[in-house]
Amino acid sequence: MFDSIAALRDHLAAPGRSLEYVAKMLHEVPDLPVVADRARYLVEKVKGKAVLDIGCAGPLSPHLRAVATRYHGIDKQEGGDWLHLDVDAAPQDLPTLVVDLVIAGELLEHLANPGTFLAQLRAKYPATPVYFTVPHAGAYRVQNDCEIVNRDHVAWYSYTTLKTLLTRHGYVIHEARWYNGEPHKAEGLIVLAV
Fold this sequence. Notes:
- The protein is of the alpha/beta class.
- It has a single domain, classed as Rossmann fold (3-Layer(aba) Sandwich).
- The chain is built from 6 helices and 10 strands; from the N terminus they run H-H-E-H-E-H-E-E-E-H-E-E-E-H-E-E.
- It has an 8-stranded mixed β-sheet with strand order 1-9-10-6-5-2-3-4, sandwiched between helices. The chain has a two-stranded antiparallel sheet with strand order 7-8.
- A hairpin with an 8-residue loop joins strand 9 (173-179) and strand 10.
């Protein structure tokens, strides 16, 4: 649509818009490394650690469990040997466990109020590193008048919106990566925050 950042900046600075508006709208994205396989990457990070896996009913859970020294799972879905808890409805009920790492994989985009969840997670695990993974807004597609999106998702995250959300709740990003695709258009983001 725009052939340069300057052209985009000029468009945003249309008559009636302030320079503050332009500054608020443009955000540089750091040059993030790419991870070809989110699952394999997280399994490597979990090896030899005590882990809390929030949103654990998916296919990644058994692989994390296999390499963790101690594994605790939480999901609102019943039927597994994990703690049945809807962290969206009752984030205050998160248990306080001794763990080295928390995984919140493909979770934030499902929550009606991710801020409340993040505040409770931070309160219960103030110094524990957390790997957050989310689908990336840049991967959104419409094909033949049909959106390609999970019906259970209520939000899309870009690098900037995820960073803003985490920062508002006291997290500091220590590393970030794209997963499954080329930068800026990848399927998702992996962020390590404390």
